[in-house]
Amino acid sequence: xxxxxxxxxxxxxxxxxxSGVVRGLIKNGIQTTAYVRDEKKxxxxxxxxxxxxxxxxxxxxxxxxxxxTKSIQGHTRLFLLFSAIDSKPTDMSQVKGxxxxxxxxQENRQKDLDxxxxxxxxxxxxxxxxxxxxxxxxxxxQKHSMLIDHQTFLSKLILKEGVxxxxxxxxxxxxxxxxxxxxxxxxxxxxxxxxxxxxxxxxKLAGRLDEDMAIDLSSxxxxxxxxxxxxxxxxxxxxxxxxxxxxxxxxxxxxxxxxNSVSFFNVxxxxxxxxxxxxxxxxxxLISFKGASLLRAKFLYSHYININFATAKLDGSFFExxxxxxxxxxxxxxxxxxxxxxxxxxxxxTDTKMDHSFIAESEFSNNVNMRNxxxxxxxxxxxxxxxxxxxxxEMHGSSxxxxxxxxxxxxxxxxxxxxxxxxxxxxxxSILPNGTMYSSN
Length: 441
Hints:
Blueprint: E1 7-11, H1 16-27, E2 31-36, H2 39-45, H3 47-51, E3 55-59, H4 65-71, E4 77-79, H5 89-161, H6 170-187, H7 190-202, E5 243-245, E6 263-268, E7 278-280, E8 283-288, E9 298-308, E10 318-328, E11 338-340, E12 343-345, E13 358-360, E14 363-365, E15 379-381, E16 384-386, E17 404-406, H8 418-422, E18 426-428, E19 430-431, E20 437-438
Parallel strand pairs: 1-2, 1-4, 2-3, 5-6, 6-8, 7-9, 8-9, 9-10, 10-11, 10-12, 11-13, 12-14, 13-15, 14-16, 16-17, 17-18
Antiparallel strand pairs: 19-20
């Protein structure tokens, strides 16, 4: 038992020995009760100890059995002191017997109370866990019913208005279908959101580009949706399954969504809300993220071809083992991003904000355009830049530690100094901000 749980009852507390015991207990942070005959004497004797809030004074004598019985309750230990001066041995034996018995009985009662309290707490925990499980089961059953009800509703509507909801009352049918579908997405859990989206996509009712979709999914809540493998699985090879062609996610809410081991071809994420999304081991081509919000997004072990990130917000995002060919980040915001072990070729970063970023062990080559890019206070370590156009860039306070710059054009770049270039491993055939050619070797 810790000192904070102890409560010690001291009789004869105002005597020389008793007062020393009380002070020692208080000094060690133990809650103490002093049983004394003279309250004023005790208050003067224990003036400092009373200020701690850990000392309680009870007035009584060895013959005040009722007072002792009441005040001993809740204590864990009894320190029984008895002055034998002017007392008979039988008096001492009688006090020890009486007070000891009362303390023992109180201790047993306290143990019984503690056991009862513990049992009540265990019963409460079991009941609460049962209630939580019951609520989870009920909630799961409710969401399952919602999905079944929605699919039943769509089936009946299709039978009445045609596969593409284009019969006589097609405008009303499509309006109702969209309205009920958006409500369903807001109410369903991620697993059932995925099932509903895939059923709409496969059935060609919604989610496809370049086709007249019966159900418009713009503004749909697809947050936390999981399109493939578990979120914590790290695949080191390109995806071999889960392909999606001509998918339309424009203007949808995909916050915290997971696209693990998915192949995308000709897909639109234009103006989508995709904060905290995970793109793990994805293979994508002809994709548009134009104007999308991708704050803190993760692009891991993925290969992208012909991708448009123009005007997208990617602040705080993470790119690792990421390859991007023919990617446009023009006018986008990549402030505070991390790029590691990645490669960008034939890509453009014109007028892109990349301040306060960390870029390491990565390559930018084959006509990468970084004109007007802002890399203020960024760390560019152990990277390779070959044939990159960085005219009119901003690099105030940037670090270029052990990086290689070959045939890079820094003309009119602001904030780039010779001291910064000396941090680089190699600077070869590159144009300085003043227009002169420079090679460190």
